[in-house]
Design a protein that fits this description.
By secondary structure, the protein is an alpha/beta fold. It has three domains: 8-78, Orthogonal Bundle (Arc Repressor Mutant, subunit A), CATH 1.10.10; 83-197 and 386-403, ATPase, nucleotide binding domain (Nucleotidyltransferase, domain 5, 2-Layer Sandwich); 204-380, Nucleotidyltransferase, domain 5, CATH 3.30.420. The protein is built from 16 helices and 15 strands. The chain has helices at residues 8-27, 32-39, 43-55, 119-134, 174-182, 191-202, 262-265, 267-280, 285-289, 299-307, 311-335, 344-350, 352-365, 368-373, 384-395, 397-403, and strands at 29-31, 59-64, 74-78, 84-89, 94-100, 106-113, 142-149, 153-154, 159-160, 186-190, 210-216, 221-227, 230-231, 339-343, 375-378. The longest helix is centred in the C-terminal third of the chain and has 25 residues, at 311-335. The protein is globular. It starts with 7 loop residues before the first helix and ends with a helix. 43% of the residues are buried. Bound molecules: zinc ion (ZN).
Length: 405
């Protein structure tokens, strides 16, 4: 993301700094000559960057190592707690936030209820979380804020796109609004898609060339695609709109098309299908448990019943898995990924009770060499995949050099 035009020489300096930062974070203990040898820098430049990192507290000297023919080199240790990032993820009723260290490890959590569904409510709740997560932290040690926001988002302008169904009649510059209020750099991506970065950096997909994260929510479905270490954005930040892939003739979707995948497999669709089946099966254990009041049915209860193999719920989950497999099979045939991670609030809630039938159904919908090459897994980081992914928007190497001070 290039938010401000920069001179070429500055961009080159940032690229070198970010390579040095990556090296230090990966190897943990190194010498000045490792910077020159492994990043390909002159001794003077390597030494200057090491000095800059030492002064910033990102490295500390821990004594001399073994000689490789000359003077014994001073060893430098990477200090993950020297700076922090804040990651924030939107939710239907409340937004959650974390403060992570430079390794993306969570050191603090916060939660704030959403007071309304409008764009200014989003800005307000994010600012409240930032204020809580940075109170008591040394001023200047927070590098920036990564936000997984609601709905369609323009990553370049850091704006929420107009979405009438979410009460947004025009684009809203959420990133700039929050940045102005908190005085820190803000990065903004759709909340489902950031999960891909979390699982790529700290979860099941570490170091893989092609990872797909499928975020299944109460209302929607979106996929984040990481290609060669970068979240793939597309021409207008809309890559991975898996929820609006057409898989049937009905029902009508708010996007204007019919038969969109998310209308058939999201949390609300699962609830509606279970309710319909229970209406016809008042004798089932789940109906009895609800005392016949189907309005008391909620997703945690459905997920619990799925884990206990309650037949009514298992039937619905099998249908949902079959339908989701159409979209997933197409995605696997198009991208040939190494791993597909099923996460998001609903994906995490159901876990293996959804992923296991999904694996079987996807096998029937995918070219077998592509299916044999892919692992379909539940999110290793669970609900934290998206929170850590949001913080990673700040911590990933492309950004780090421009926000290090
Ligand atoms: Zn749609």
């Amino acid at each position: 993301m290039q938010r401000h035009p920069k001179r070429k020489i500055e961009r080159q300096k940032e690229a070198i700094r970010s390579d040095c930062f990556d090296l230090a974070r990966d190897v943990r203990i190194l010498s000045r000559s490792d910077f020159s040898a492994q990043v390909g820098l002159s001794k003077a430049t390597a030494s200057a960057i090491a000095q800059e990192f030492l002064q910033a507290g990102l490295l500390r000297e821990i004594g001399r190592g073994d000689s490789r023919g000359g003077r014994r080199p001073m060893l430098l240790e990477f200090m993950p707690g020297a700076r922090f990032a804040i990651g924030i993820v939107e939710g239907r009723l409340a937004w959650e936030g974390v403060r992570t260290n430079l390794d993306g490890e969570i050191v603090q959590r916060a939660r704030a209820p959403l007071r309304g569904r409008g764009p200014t409510d989003c800005a307000d709740v994010a600012v409240r979380l930032v204020e809580e997560l940075r109170s008591g932290v040394v001023p200047g040690s927070i590098l920036g804020i990564g936000i997984g926001g609601p709905g369609q988002i323009d990553t370049n302008t850091r704006s929420l796109k107009a979405t009438p169904s979410l009460g947004r009649t025009e684009d809203y510059p959420l990133g700039a609004m929050i940045e102005a209020r908190v005085g820190l750099p803000v990065f903004l991506v759709n909340a489902g898609r950031v999960g891909a970065l979390g699982e790529y950096y700290r979860g099941v997909g570490r170091g893989m060339d092609c990872l797909v994260f499928v975020a299944l929510g109460e209302l929607g479905l979106v996929a984040g695609i990481v290609l060669k270490g970068k979240l793939y954005s597309g021409a207008s930040s809309l890559s991975g709109e898996l929820g609006h892939v057409t898989v049937a003739g009905e029902p009508l979707c708010y996007c204007g098309n019919r038969g969109c995948l998310e209308r058939l497999v999201s949390g609300d669709a699962i609830l509606a299908q279970v309710r319909e089946k229970l209406r016809a099966r008042p004798e089932s254990p789940l109906s009895q448990r609800l005392g016949g009041d189907l309005q008391r049915l909620n997703l945690p209860l459905v997920a619990e019943s799925a884990k206990e193999n309650e037949p009514v719920v298992s039937d619905v989950i099998a249908t949902v898995a079959d339908t989701l497999a159409i979209g997933l099979g197409n995605l696997i045939d198009l991208l040939n990924p190494q791993v597909v991670v099923i996460g998001g609030p609903v994906g995490t809630l159901f876990g293996e009770s959804l992923v296991s039938p999904l694996r079987n159904a996807t096998r029937r919908r995918t070219l077998s060499p592509a299916f044999n090459a892919v692992r379909i897994e539940t999110a290793q980081l669970g609900a934290d995949a998206q929170l850590i992914g949001a913080a990673t928007l700040v911590l990933q190497s492309a950004q780090i050099a421009s926000v290090l001070r």
